[in-house]
Amino acid sequence: MAFDLSRKKILLAEDDGDDREFFIDFLGSRTDIELLPGVTSGVELLDYLHRITSPDELPDIVILDQNMPKLTGKETLTAIKATDWLAQIAVVIYSTYVGRELIDECLKLGAVSVKSKPVSKDGYNEMMNEILAACHRVSVS
């Protein structure tokens, strides 16, 4: 994946309405990202991605909640990385609880990073800065 410093298209997969609102409220005004329409499940995310007709329409980064109905974040990550034309998408797993086991499993499956859900605007901005930096490091390696 070629990762430059231009505005990044971010897609959030999150089933909790409050968390979606926090994410949009805290990051919607950032000029370095474009928030794509969010989805509420892994199934909905995969459907969304499979409807895309041009590589230019793909998100640069998917932020994927681990604890969702139907497909967990890890299961959805596995499906994304198993699809050749989607595998280039940088995927970040985030969850209320992030332990060593979850981090190791997700990184092994191809996640760029695993993050704890922030609780403040500063936390969301810090998380996004860390995500953008992690995606940049991966792309230049």
TrEMBL record:
<dbReference type="InterPro" id="IPR011006">
    <property type="entry name" value="CheY-like_superfamily"/>
</dbReference>
<feature type="modified residue" description="4-aspartylphosphate">
    <location>
        <position position="65"/>
    </location>
</feature>
<dbReference type="InterPro" id="IPR052893">
    <property type="entry name" value="TCS_response_regulator"/>
</dbReference>
<dbReference type="Pfam" id="PF00072">
    <property type="entry name" value="Response_reg"/>
</dbReference>
<feature type="domain" description="Response regulatory">
    <location>
        <begin position="9"/>
        <end position="132"/>
    </location>
</feature>
<keyword id="KW-0597">Phosphoprotein</keyword>
<protein>
    <submittedName>
        <fullName>Response regulator</fullName>
    </submittedName>
</protein>
<dbReference type="GO" id="GO:0000160">
    <property type="term" value="P:phosphorelay signal transduction system"/>
</dbReference>
<dbReference type="InterPro" id="IPR001789">
    <property type="entry name" value="Sig_transdc_resp-reg_receiver"/>
</dbReference>
